[in-house]
Amino acid sequence: MDDKTFFSFYAERINRVVSKLQNGYQSINFWQESVWRGIGIDLYEVFHRAAVRCLIAELHVCKKAGILSGQTVREEYDSYCRLLAEENYVKSIYQKYPGLLQYLQRLEKIQFCFWDELLERLTNDWEEIKKYFHLDTESCVLSVRRSGSDFHCEAKSVVIIETNQQKNFI
Whole-angstrom Cα distance, residue 125 to residue 113? Predict the structure, then answer.
């Protein structure tokens, strides 16, 4: 996921949520490792929507101040991403935008609760789901992803679940 815009700014937060979920569901054997990657991508998109404008503004501030290295736009962007990986710089962003830190912390909790609830329901209802969708006993979940619909009720949304039997359900 390192190719995602400003990923280093979100990486720790994403890893924290995914790790907590993995710890809670490590004994589940009907989904593949790719499920965690899908959740991580979704988390990136949520956090990125929340912070991207501030990060773009700060990138321009750094460029204007001559803080970024590089001869091309790409090199300057890469320089800024390295800066985003530095804890002190990230702290300075949060000091400048205290609402951003609070919002990201709130989003992190909400997102964890959303995915935890979804995974718990999927786990508890897996046998019924297999019967309803006529999945065989060896079926497994390959991916989970949001449908792109708007969030509602504490960031809940429609999720598409893909199985190894080329069946998707919502």
Answer: 18
Q: Rounded to 5 degrees, what angle do the CA atoms 142, 42, 141 make?
A: 15
CB 160 within 8 A of CB 147: yes
Q: Where are the alpha helices (DSSP H) in 65-97?
A: 73-84, 87-96
List, for the chain, all residue ranges whose pLDDT scores fall below the cut of 70.
Answer: 1-2, 147-156, 167-170
Q: Which residue has the tokens 């959303």?
A: 114
Q: Write down the pLDDT at residue 144.
A: 87
| pTM strictly above 0.85 | yes
- Closest to 55 (Cα-Cα) out of 15, 87, 8: 8
- Across the strands, what pairs with 144? 161
Q: Please, are residues 104 and 110 in contact by the beta-carbon 8 Å criterion? A: no
B/e letters for 133-161, b = 16+ CB within 10 Å, e = fewer, are eebeeebebbbbbbeeeeeeeebeeebeb
Number of neighbours of residue 123 by Cβ within 10 angstroms? 14
Tally of CB atoms within 10 A around 62: 16
Is 143 within 8 Å of 162 (Cβ atoms)?
yes
